[in-house]
Specification:
Layout lengths: L11 H20 L7 H29 L3 E3 L8 E3 L3 H15 L5 H8 L11 H5 L9 H27 L3 H4 L2 H5 L1 H10 L4 E3 L5 H4 L2 E3 L2 H20 L6 H21 L8 H25 L8 H18 L3 H7 L1 H14 L12 E3 L4 E3 L2 E3 L8 H12 L5 E3 L5 E5 L3 H9 L4 H30 L6 H4 L1
Antiparallel strand pairs: 1-2, 3-4, 5-6, 7-9, 8-9
Helix pairs in contact: 1-2, 2-3, 2-13, 3-6, 3-13, 3-14, 6-9, 6-14, 11-14, 11-16, 12-13, 12-14, 12-19, 13-14, 14-15
The structure holds uridine-diphosphate-N-acetylglucosamine (UD1) and magnesium ion.
The site of uridine-diphosphate-N-acetylglucosamine has 19 residues, from strand 1 and helix 11.
Keywords: Endoplasmic reticulum, Glycosyltransferase, Magnesium, Membrane, Metal-binding, Transferase, Transmembrane, Transmembrane helix
InterPro entries: Glycosyl_transferase_4, GPT
Family: Belongs to the glycosyltransferase 4 family.
């Protein structure tokens, strides 16, 4: 970086690099019109453009956001400077524009086929055919409906996320916001796919049969995933970079999973849904890497709730419409752990302060677990006190008692604080790096479980079917 942190204009090397990247991507994009349209290449090219646009816009618009009151204080620094917040809004807008521009690409072949006689542009159509709706019955309207429903869901979550960043909606109200955003997806799932059965593991098959139909409960489960994914990313937050790195890791692992299906001989039944997933993940990675550039330690911008919700919803969109929501659940294991571990504070058994991010020790420059203070008058009830002490014994919490055995402090229930209880005080970027590495290792293990270990308890894996 040659530009100073406060500079709002791009440095010359940055301008040259972004300009070259954009020109190269636009050239590749223009070339995809020759041949069959090559939608995957077009998606990659547009993702490059999305990176450049987000990179430049974050730099240019930072001060405008601060002027409009979208700013936050970085609590883990010596100098408590205000920096722009809600930069996820820029990512969301760029992403949505790119996804909209991309609409014709995956349908290029179908548009040609539906409008000029089976894809052969030399065929001269008879007048009566032209009047019969230009053979549009051949067009995959279902696929387009999936695509459009995904856009509606992502637009809704972006609007709601920006609303949250502007008005700081109360936690218990905003928790359900993503459920509304998921309705278009669930409707398309119902019409288009409609499978509500789950495969029963081999040991349980004598009791439940091979398939178990969850019926409408399956939709409740999917709405649950839609509520969980965005919120879980928002509460695994509070140190520079962590919201973006966890999202990038999950997106890359989902993309890796998609690529496994592309490597199988076409036409595999799941290839199309995994291609669809890549079309949504690649531009997401484009905007996220640009955001990470600014949000990594020492952060020059905050991502805001908009980014956390948006990222979580991108995963929901691809996994519901790609029919692999259970794989997503495996990739969200650290987030699930963080949520379950947070439950005592989220559900009010232990007081929950507005912020639970790790505490910055200005003397050492290191992060320590943040704590909830207890007073002699306000002590946890007996069973809770017992549970807190038990967690302390298992090193799952840090509890401080006074001489009389009364609670004075308990560390806050987040995975970031727990990590600090285990590892001792750490520098902020070190903590972010370690949590990100853990996310990657656990995610890779999740994918391994999905494709290999699952074969121990299920008859087959839908990727393995074609490979073995
Ligand atoms: C969630 C967490 C909260 C955590 C916060 C941090 C729950 C229930 N809520 O709340 O405990 O403190 O995220 O994002 O678990 N900030 C930093 N450094 C960072 C990132 C954020 O200091 O690297 C601070 C800034 O002051 C920023 C603020 O956190 O303005 C953003 O918090 P916000 O996203 O509004 O908090 P919530 O999502 O409501
Ligand atoms: Mg937040």
């Amino acid at each position: 970086m040659t530009a100073s942190p406060n500079s709002t204009s791009l440095s010359r090397p940055e301008t040259i690099s972004l300009f070259s990247l954009t020109v190269a991507c636009l050239t590749v994009l223009a070339n995809t019109f020759q041949g069959d349209g090559a939608p995957l290449v077009a998606s990659l090219a547009l993702s490059g453009v999305a990176f450049s646009a987000t990179f430049a816009l974050i730099r240019w618009l930072g001060p405008t956001f601060i002027k409009s009151g979208l700013k936050g204080v970085d609590m883990s620094k010596h100098h408590k400077r205000e920096i722009p917040e809600c930069m996820g809004a820029i990512c969301a807008v760029v992403y949505l524009l790119v996804i909209i521009v991309f609409i014709p690409f995956p349908f290029y072949k179908d548009i040609v086929a539906a409008t000029s006689g089976g894809g052969n542009r030399d065929v001269i159509l008879q007048m009566e055919h032209v009047q019969q709706g230009r053979l549009l019955h051949r067009f995959p309207h279902g696929k387009l409906a999936s695509y459009l429903s995904a856009i509606i869901s992502l637009q809704s979550i972006a609007i709601l996320g920006i609303g949250d960043d502007l008005f700081d909606i109360r936690w218990r109200h905003k928790f359900f916001i993503p459920a509304f955003a998921s309705i278009p997806l669930l409707v398309v799932y119902f019409v288009d796919f409609g499978v509500t059965s789950i495969v029963i593991p081999i040991p349980l098959q004598p009791y439940f049969g091979e398939l178990f139909n969850l019926g409408s409960l399956y939709y409740v489960y999917m709405a649950g995933v839609a509520i969980f994914s965005p919120n879980s990313i928002n509460i695994l937050a509070g140190i520079n970079g962590i919201e973006v790195t966890q999202s990038i890791i999950i997106a890359m692992l989902l993309a890796l999973n998609d690529c496994l299906y592309l490597l199988t001989p076409y036409p595999h039944p799941a290839t199309d849904s995994h291609l669809f997933s890549l079309y949504f993940l690649l531009p997401f990675l484009g905007v996220s890497f640009a955001l990470l550039w600014y949000n990594w330690y020492p952060a020059r911008v905050f991502v805001g709730d908009t980014y956390c919700y948006f990222a979580g919803m991108v995963f929901v969109v691809v996994s519901i419409l790609g029919h692999f929501s259970k794989t997503l659940v495996l990739l969200l294991i650290p987030q699930i752990f963080n949520f379950v571990y947070s439950a005592p504070q989220l559900f009010g058994l232990v007081p929950c302060p507005r912020h639970r991010l790790p505490r910055f020790n200005a003397r050492t420059g290191l992060l320590e677990p943040s704590v909830t203070p207890w007073t002699p008058e306000r002590q946890p009830k007996k069973p809770i006190a017992w549970a807190l002490k038990l967690l302390h014994q298992f090193k799952l919490l840090r509890v401080t008692l006074d001489e009389e055995g009364k609670f004075t402090e308990t560390s806050n229930f987040t995975i970031l604080n727990l990590w600090l209880v285990w590892r001792g005080p750490l520098r902020e970027e070190r903590l972010a790096l370690e949590i990100t590495t853990m996310q990657m290792v656990v995610g890779l293990f999740g994918l391994f479980v999905r494709h290999r270990l699952a074969l121990l308890i299920f008859n087959s894996d839908n990727w393995g079917i074609m490979n073995t």
